[in-house]
Amino acid sequence: MWRFARKGTTRRGLIQICKTSLRLQNRHLGQISITTTEPGTELLRRMILSQFCMTCFQNLRGAFRAFRKGDDYISNILCRNVIEYYITWKYIDKDPETRIPQFVDAPLRGQLRFSETVEGIIEEEPDLIDVEPVRIKERKTELIGQIDAGIESHGAWNKIIEQRAIDVGLENLYNMPYRLLSTIIHPDALQSDNYFTEENDGTVKICPFRDMAENSIRSLQTGFWLANEMFSQLAGIFDLPNQDQYEVLIRRTVNHVRSKANST
Predict the structure, then answer these.
(1) Which residues contact 17 (CB under 8 A, 6 or more apart)?
(2) Phi/psi of residue 206, nearest 5 degrees
(3) Are 212 and 184 contacting, i.e. CB atoms less than 8 angstroms apart?
(4) Burial of 110 from C-beta contacts in 10 A (0-12 / 13-18 / 19+)
(5) For residues 173 and 225, is the Cβ–Cβ distance under 8 A?
(6) Domain segments of the chain as ranges
(7) Radius of gyration over alpha carbons of the chain, in Å?
(8) CA angle 146–149–150, rounded 5-degree value
(9) CA 108 to CA 143: how far, in whole Å?
(10) Is there a contact between 217 and 14 (Cβ–Cβ < 8 Å)?
(11) What is the DSSP letter of 241?
(12) Is residue 255 helix, strand or coil?
């Protein structure tokens, strides 16, 4: 993955960026007040961005704590989540009038699949679930109608994150940190050689605790960089004080990335 050795470098600068970012993010989340008299799309836009920022804050807080405890695996996973939220938000915000309704309607497909699953279970094991079959059929019909109406009105939500990233010019962000971090999470036979080492006698030994320290440093840099981009927009929308501090933190993160890259 990233060639980013921790040896010979200090984490002090990165830790300070993380601490300052989390304090500022936490303070701003507590100052948000959404006026429900806003027009429909703008109201939902503010609510979605607020929700995404809150979730990113929670992920980064957990990633930072794990990083300081030496749990690089957890840190990498949580920072990967932030990348996905950032790509998704950029995709939504590029065309909010169309994509916000698509995003809001997207869970209906999951509910339809659940209804179909329950319907199948009832047919095979009628005593297993205490639900009237007619109620499931009615709900299924209702969901199909809502989904069809939504598609006709504003189209279907793009479920493929790679396509969303390409649409907003973030294919490099997807291809480099996000896709590579995905190999940590998803089972993939092509990655299995990373967990084994061959001894001098020809035997193979499993290494279940693969060192991910190199990646976690860059993951935190990327995660806080992207989250601060989103929080900067959030602070601007809600006219929060000290919103210019996000730009300062982003510059510090960029400088930190460059200094680490030059030291390797």
Answers:
(1) 224, 249, 252, 253, 256
(2) -80, 140
(3) yes
(4) exposed
(5) no
(6) 12-95+169-262
(7) 22
(8) 85
(9) 7
(10) yes
(11) T
(12) helix
Q: What is the DSSP string of 80-131?
A: HHHHHHHHHHHHHHHSHHHHHHHHHHTHHHHHHHHHHHHHHHHHH-TTTS-S
State the pLDDT at residue 70. Answer: 87
Percent of the chain whose predicted confidence (pLDDT) is above 70? 88
Other CB atoms within a 10 A radius of the CB of residue 168 amount to: 18
Q: Which residues does residue 196 pair with via DSSP β-bridges, in sequence order? A: 206
pTM: 0.84
How many Cα atoms occupy the beta-carbon half-sphere of 123 within 13 Å? Answer: 8
For the chain, what is the total number of helices (H) and then of strands (E)? Answer: 11, 2
Place of tokens 């840099």: 221
Q: Are 37 and 177 in contact (CB under 8 A)?
A: no
* DSSP result, 163-230: HHHHHTT-HHHIIIIIHHHHHHHS--GGGGGGGEEE-TTS-EEE-SS---HHHHHHHHHHHHHHHHHH
Q: Which residue bears the tokens 């793009």?
A: 158
Q: What is the pLDDT of residues 20-41, one digit of tens each?
A: 999 999 999 999 998 877 778 9
C-alpha separations of 254 from 85, 222, 235 in Å: 20, 9, 20
Is the distance from CB of 214 to CB of 73 less than 8 angstroms?
no
Amino acid making up residue 120: G
Q: Are 38 and 26 in contact (CB under 8 A)?
A: no
Tokens 């209804």 locate to 115
For residues 90 and 198, the model is more confident at 90
